[in-house]
């Protein structure tokens, strides 16, 4: 009897950002441009850091990995969205949906941990400068990165496995342009208490804990900077944190707009807009934020692009 009641779902429907036909061309062009800018900008950041000896420091080491994570995070959803718009099909296979969710959770969590690691790097540099070389040694940075990569698989695998054991009912339409965990659970016709409990537990661990570490680090940084006697020293110390703090505010602000604010009659549209901010706009803006506010990065990008022009010239 249980086998007969088991719903066989082979695909889901992604409703996207708009169902109006006259807006599809605009959405396709807009998201294609944003995706290309995201990939190109973050690749330039990675190439600039790897090719410039002046940028071989822990801060830029984590920034290069953040750029890589942003490319993968965006690539997990936007290409599928573009294909659906181009083919005028809104479907995604069951396996494809679970796979997409896994990579979105994995690289989304990796972003959280890398932002926390970068905040810790700034804390050590400003609050414990005499110990910076030993605390943020290359070996310790590689270890921190390995831990970040290992931990991000925990929520991704957990949610993917739990979702794979659910029975789904019709209609099976997801009011997003990607497979989000909350709408997926609402489509299930089997018991989802464990899934909902794991969302709370893993969300508290892998979202709130990194954010708490970032807040604590910047509280210590602010306290230390306010103790500087020189205004120039305060400004210089604050300027080393400006780019990172801007990215943190943009990422977590849009993320909270999706998952923490109470529901309303406009919640679906609001959450879709906020999802675009943290899944597309933030990864696209990161290279601009770090390159425009960082003199060393601007110099490295200038050398990289200058060498490219030199190599391409006859």
Written account of the structure:
The structure is a single chain. By secondary structure, the protein is mainly α. Helix content is about 75%, strand content about 5%. Helix 3 runs antiparallel to helix 11 and helix 5 packs parallel to helix 9. The longest helix has about 35 residues. The protein is globular, with a radius of gyration of 22 Å. The chain starts with a helix and ends with a helix.
How is the topology of this model organized?
Blueprint: H1 2-5, E1 11-14, H2 24-51, H3 58-75, H4 78-87, E2 91-93, H5 94-127, H6 132-135, H7 138-164, E3 173-174, H8 181-186, H9 193-226, H10 231-259, H11 267-292, H12 295-312
Parallel strand pairs: 1-3
Antiparallel strand pairs: 1-2
Helix pairs in contact: 2-3, 2-4, 2-11, 2-12, 3-5, 3-11, 5-7, 5-9, 5-10, 7-9, 9-10, 10-11
Features:
314 residues, mainly alpha, three-stranded mixed sheet, 12 helices, globular, disordered N terminus, disordered C terminus
Q: How much of the sequence is in beta strands?
A: under 5%
Radius of gyration based on Cα positions: 22 Å
What string gives the helices and strands in order?
Answer: HEHHHEHHHEHHHHH
**Shape type:** globular
- Major sheet strand order: 2-1-3
Largest sheet: 3 strands, mixed
Averaged pLDDT, please?
85
* Structural class based on helices, strands and sheet pairing: mainly alpha
Distance between the termini: 74 Å
What is the gist of this entry?
It is globular, with a radius of gyration of 22 Å.
